[in-house]
Amino acid sequence: MRMSKSPILVLGALFFCSGLSSMILGQTSRPREESVLLKQKTSLVTLTATVTDRDGRAVTDLRPGEIEVYEDKVRQHVEFYGMADAPVSVGVIFDLSGSMSTQLARAREALTAFIETSHPQDDYFLIGFQKQVRLLAEFGDGASMLRRLAPADAHGSTALYDAIYMGMEKVKQGRHRKHALLVISDGQDNASRYDLDELRRRMRETDAQIYCIGVNQASTSDKAAWREERRGQMILDTIAQLTGGRSFFVHTAEALEEATTRVALELRQQYSLGYVPTNAQPDGRWRKIRLRVNRPALRVRTREGYFASLE
pTM higher than 0.90 for the full model? Predict the structure, then answer.
């Protein structure tokens, strides 16, 4: 026995077909207010997380549910979770001040090792800094960046904060979703227009992880130089920690190359997480993020939070 279609079903089918054709044509009949509301409801907070063991080695076998996400101490429901060797847009922030003059050759070699270990589809730009900050290489491949670094020499004072600030702006132009900055410096600054507090505020707005490699050279017998070096280390450590990155401090060419290689490997062994905040109010306030791993003796890092404002 054939069943006749009710007017409600027919009308529903017509609405469905109409909506489908609008999607195909790239049009919508929904009012503008509804579109804005949909954008708010479906906006995700995305995180890049690094999990390491006691020896600093990446842990890559965590299952969904073993990483918990908390925003302002409230647990969030993770909407997507994955672990993949994804390409990264990387900005290299290279210290070319006078204090790096004896370290320049080995720093170039370490940067070569970094590129050789990185994902083959990564793209790079290069910022060199002395008293002035200069964009030495636009986004491109690693070989092109190294060629632009080859003729550079080290002299003058140090505008580290200005260089990192420029790097955070530039990396947003990268073609990959993941962003990172690699800072090679001794951590000292004596020429920037921005101060450390201004840099911290800007870092709270970036999604780029910042990795810092401090090139140390002061001897313990020179107390003034040693104190200045320690201060530079604390600054680099603060910068890395706020963004979910990592800092290394090295004294030898071998240690410098090992540090850049470890950064490259870590960028290829990270988790991607996304969640819709339970607090949907776009109030512009800072939201503190904390991750927890349900395995003993593991450490997890991500950015410290975000500002809940609408784009």
Answer: no
